[in-house]
Amino acid sequence: MKRDGNAPRHQTIGLEDKVYIAGHRGLVGSALTRRLTREGFKNLILRTRQELDLADQRAVDAFFRKERPDYVFLAAARVGGILANHTRPAEFIMENLAIAVNVIGAAHRSEVKKLLFLGSSCIYPRHCPQPIKEDYLLTGSLEPTNEPYAVAKIAGIHLCQAYNRQYGTRYICAMPANLYGPGDNFDLETSHVLPALIRRFHEAKTAGAAAVTVWGTGTPRREFLHVDDLADACLFLMREYDDPAIINVGVGEDLSIRELAELVAEVVGYQGRLVFDPSKPDGTPRKLLDVSRLSRLGWRASIPLREGIEQTYRWYLANFAGHAPHSAGSREDTVKG
Ligand SMILES: NC(=O)c1ccc[n+]([C@@H]2O[C@H](COP(=O)([O-])OP(=O)(O)OC[C@H]3O[C@@H](n4cnc5c(N)ncnc54)[C@H](OP(=O)(O)O)[C@@H]3O)[C@@H](O)[C@H]2O)c1
Predict the structure, then answer these.
(1) pTM
(2) At how many degrees (to 10) do helices 305-319 and 193-207 cross?
(3) Are 122 and 79 in contact (CB under 8 A)?
(4) Mind listing the pLDDT tens digit for each residue in 153-199?
(5) Per DSSP, which regions of 75-209 are E strands?
(6) What structural domains does the chain harbor?
(7) Counting runs of H as helices and runs of E as strands, what totals does the chain give?
(8) Fewer C-beta neighbours within 10 Å, C or N terminus of the chain?
(9) Residue 315 DSSP SS3
(10) C-alpha 23 to ligand 1 mean position (Å)
(11) Whose CA is nearest to atom 18 of ligand 1?
């Protein structure tokens, strides 16, 4: 059934198709580029932010008119940890709204066959039953520390669903758990908790620091998905999933920030003391995704957390440690949750 110039539902992505990966230099975008290249995709379309600012609607329209991609992985976004979201809310909502509006609108105008939009588990209410089912979306108030970002992601979801309903487009929405892996952001002001822990413990080890202080109480529980697993799931969904309903992508298990800190310290080889600073924000108490919808389709994560952290630490040592300004001067170091 062909509707409105969009690909019939049974048509699936092929190695000859033109595939645009928005945000290809980011954590997710670089993993998608690795995965699709390994799979043998021949026509990947990649643009740096300097080449194409996705917040610039004219530039985005001109790009889509010229390149006419068949498939789009929308992995570009303004992303950051608690501190960055807390101090720059306007930038987080504006940039993410602009990227979603510009790319989804242009994709429709240039009749892209299928698009995958990436949201995040922060779209779900702060206090919802665990594990979190996709149906819990908009059933309660959001976590205040990253609400502007979450609202922009929810708007992106509704944009996709509204286009699907009005124009018969095939825009799907994946909601990943917290991600980590090679290519992560290790900047201590803007990074997420896991890369921040790797860097802090490594620097504390090399400086011989007696203790490392971790933001918060250590009790919040989090789920971590290796970014290569996510890239694999995104390709699987682009091939197999055509439902407008959002779909969670995770491992289906979580651990406390204290357990995570202890695991990262072990992998890095840091033997000093861990101190938790309860005066700093914890964020949402628990955020475990229900991944039964995706596992019913036959997909499961395959990279265990310890193995993934070991691999990420090796990447950090090879690509970051020694290049970054050394900050571990004092005897006590602090990690922002
Ligand atoms: N990281 C996580 O834990 C996590 C968890 C769940 C969902 N997600 C979702 O996954 C997606 C990708 O996140 P990520 O972790 O890969 O983020 P990231 O590492 O910060 O990568 C984002 C990419 O988007 C590009 N970008 C941002 N604004 C742009 C603009 N105006 N024009 C062109 N390019 C722009 C960035 O370009 P530059 O390289 O030039 O900065 C970067 O390459 C996001 O939608 C995010 O919500 C992430």
Answers:
(1) 0.93
(2) 60
(3) no
(4) 999 999 999 999 999 999 999 999 999 999 999 998 888 899 999 99
(5) 114-118, 171-176, 178-180
(6) 18-179+224-249 (3.40.50.720), 182-222+254-286+308-319 (3.90.25.10)
(7) 10, 14
(8) N
(9) helix
(10) 6
(11) 26
